[in-house]
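Researcher: We're teaching a course module on how sequence relates to structure. For the next exercise, students receive a sequence and then see the predicted structure as tokens, so they can try to spot secondary structure elements on their own. Here is the exercise chain.
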Amino acid sequence: MARLILFNKPYGVLSQFTDRGSPTARATLSDHVALPGVYPAGRLDRDSEGLLLLTDDGRLQARIADPRFKLAKTYWVQVEGAVDEAAMARLRQGVVLNDGPTLAAEVAAIDPPVLWERVPPVRFRKSVPDHWLSITIREGRNRQVRRMTAAVGLPTLRLVRWRVGEWSLDGLESGAWREA
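Model: And here is the predicted structure for the students to work with:
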């Protein structure tokens, strides 16, 4: 039977078990998950947080990670600036990035979610507002959500992947994991 692990990846942790080639040791999955034979199904950037799925099943790993399967991924995104309907409409239609247009996204303004403290904390500027969005995409380009929000004039301050397909972070603290 395939093993599926839901891991709440903290900020600053690499989505791999080793950090070969780096002159300074960086935090990796092995600092949090001591299970032999499981591998990440997809990636999260070092400066992103949230749900990372790990499995020992190659087919399941491919189904989760391969963009051809268009598995929905929902992110809670704290952006800098005033969010207006025009910016959200552009994200919903898809935006053009340097590697081509994105697919349409599901986008909604949300109240600030109750999350764990991030270390280091997100920078705060009194003169610039910030807002939270829920963004669901069905592709997985490098730093895609960050590039999408930047393309509509809303730089990302914090990015938390909340859901992948049917699996979510609900009840899972930063740095913790559980079997699905």
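Model: If you want an answer key for the exercise: The mean pLDDT is 93. The first strand starts at residue 4 and ends at 9.
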